[in-house]
Write a structure and sequence with these properties.
Length: 140
């Protein structure tokens, strides 16, 4: 009787293991599909044009939401007193463009010389000013 219980337990454990692996592979395929357009060069990136010496020339692809701020948890960390801890967020759009929104920063976000108060669509060549830092939207 004990042998049958152990056999059933092993089979249940094996079935659960296969279900877990199936779910993990299925979730991973979603990430691979999401990266498809990036491989074709249709994605945008944020390039640091002006700012601290250690950031100049850095380019961050916009493959997901990119948070810019002073906080260590931001994707682009800028140590500037005029930058809020979470200053702005740039989010990719399905059509290959991106949208920037100010996250209630103290000093605001400026796109192409104009302060923004709502989410704004970005295109290649747009300039984003955050304090003394200037970012340019480029093709990745």
């Amino acid at each position: 009787m004990v042998d049958i219980v152990l056999l059933v337990g092993k089979l249940v454990l094996l079935a659960l293991l296969y279900l877990f692996l199936f779910a993990a592979v299925r979730a991973g395929l979603g990430y691979v599909r999401a990266a498809g357009p990036a491989a074709s060069g249709a994605r945008l990136a944020l390039a640091v044009v002006e700012g601290p010496r250690e950031l100049k020339g850095v380019s961050v692809p916009i493959a997901g939401p990119v948070v810019v701020g002073r906080s260590p948890g931001a994707d682009i960390v800028i140590a500037d007193d005029f930058i809020s801890s979470t200053h702005a967020r740039v989010t990719p759009s399905p059509d290959g463009t991106a949208v920037i929104e100010d996250l209630d920063s103290t000093n605001g976000t400026i796109v192409n010389g104009a302060p923004i108060t709502r989410p704004v669509a970005l295109a290649t060549g747009d300039m984003i000013d955050l304090g003394a830092v200037r970012l340019k939207v480029v093709r990745a």
